[in-house]
Amino acid sequence: NKPSLKEGFFINGHHNNAGKFYISGINSNGSEKFRLALPEMPHGFAPHPNNDLLVILPGLTGTKLNVINSKTAKKVAETRIRKDRHFNGHAVFSPDGKWLFTTENIIDSSEGVIGVYETKNFSFVRELPAYGLGPHGIDILSDGTTLVIASGGLRTRPDSGKYYFDLNSMRSSVNYIDANSGKLLNRIDMPVHRLSIRQAIVFDNDKTLVVCQYKGRREMPYLVGIQQGGGAIEMLPIDEDSLWLMNGYVGHVTIAGNIAAVSSPRGKGMGFWDLKQKTFMGSVKINDVSGVQPIKGYNDFIASANTGELYHINAKKLTATLLNNMGDDVKWTNHMIKIAT
């Protein structure tokens, strides 16, 4: 969530036309560094704060958490989730690296829970309530004990695909939970009906960047906001043409300095916000773009598209340059992570 602004390489999941799943290491010039097969569709990543371990979370309803050494691309552990639970795509380590916290669902009810795992063998230790349906993104405040949960508010079932059973009554929020006691410390509701918070990323003195997906049809609400402490979510403005270009959907977000790069694969574009000024900088049109990370510094980013392309994007000039087209048999998934070298 807080990538290095120094040199590094990148990891993104993908799948092919035969239904096989992989992650690939990607150099900053777009060339492939390595490829590793996985048992399920990869989704989010959680880097260990003190070593080269990288946790790979499966997509929604996935059951296997995989751990690799990010520098050698060797698999070091695999953990299957408990009965009647599935992973919800994201995780975060405690600052000391001793604990891993994952967003999960109880299958029968869609009630969210936080799985707690030790990080020697990545065995399950205990479960915390997430205080809402369908938790997705997760981060941790600078105190090292307060978890920040993007509670999406959506009731689903693994056998129903992306059908939502509660659109009329859904309640999405940012939930702050004590990682030691499991106590709910604060809950900040999303006031816009059918706007589901998908990511909650901590930045700049414990502010939280929230990005959303709209599950309604009658309007096109803002999708990016900032929340801090007990305050309400402040949605960031964007011009109407660019807002409609996003098509109500955010795939991935990364922060470089004061710049947030926000992808919209269904909207065919990458938008940029200045988080200090709380202003929209502009967007770049790229078909089915999603994964994004800073290459070096604040303005240059690498981005992946589901159609197989990798792009170099300059946020200041709002330009996109094709780096590599790996073909339609490499369908990049939503999230990318940077590994500093």
How does this structure look, described?
The protein is built from 1 helix and 28 strands. By secondary structure, the chain is an all-beta fold. It folds into 2 domains: 88-235, 7 Propeller (Methylamine Dehydrogenase, Chain H), CATH 2.130.10; 240-340, Lipocalin (Beta Barrel). It has a 4-stranded antiparallel β-sheet, with no helix packed on it. A 4-stranded antiparallel β-sheet has the order 4-5-6-7, with no helix packed on it. Strand 5 (53-58) and strand 6 (64-69) form a beta hairpin. The longest helix is centred in the C-terminal third of the chain and has 7 residues, at 240-246. The radius of gyration is 18 Å and the shape is globular. The mean pLDDT is 92.
Structure summarized in a few sentences:
The chain is mainly beta.
